[in-house]
Design goal:
single chain; four-stranded antiparallel beta sheet
Length: 118
């Protein structure tokens, strides 16, 4: 189990950028696949991006591909989500998550609010 705390959310204008951070505690971070998810009010949680342990392979939802970049710094036990060209539809609570045992994420942060105005 990894304890996760997101930060960096806020209110921004469409077309600008924002970087989210997720600080992890626990020795297992370096062997954890990490992901970002988001949930808008009244909507289901959706996958945003993922970065694997070996090779740092990344995967993105079509809705954010080309605009968002996920990265990790194992020395700092931190995963990031760089969000560029933000759109109002990106407004949501963003959660980071991790897994050490397969495709089902087992550790979740409390989330950080991102609001994009038009």
């Amino acid at each position: 189990q990894v304890q996760l705390v997101e930060s960096g959310g806020g209110l921004v204008q469409a077309g600008t950028s924002l970087r989210l951070s997720c600080a992890a505690s626990g020795r297992t971070f370096s062997r954890s696949t990490m992901g970002w998810f988001r949930q808008a009010p009244g909507k289901e949680r959706e996958f945003v991006a993922q970065i694997t342990v070996i090779g740092g392979s990344t995967l993105y939802a079509d809705s954010v591909k080309g605009r968002f970049t996920i990265s990790r710094d194992n020395a700092k036990s931190t995963v990031y989500l760089q969000m560029n060209s933000l759109k109002p539809e990106d407004t949501a609570v963003y959660y980071c998550a991790g897994t050490t045992r397969g495709p089902i994420y087992e550790s979740w942060g409390q989330g950080t609010q991102v609001t994009v105005s038009s």
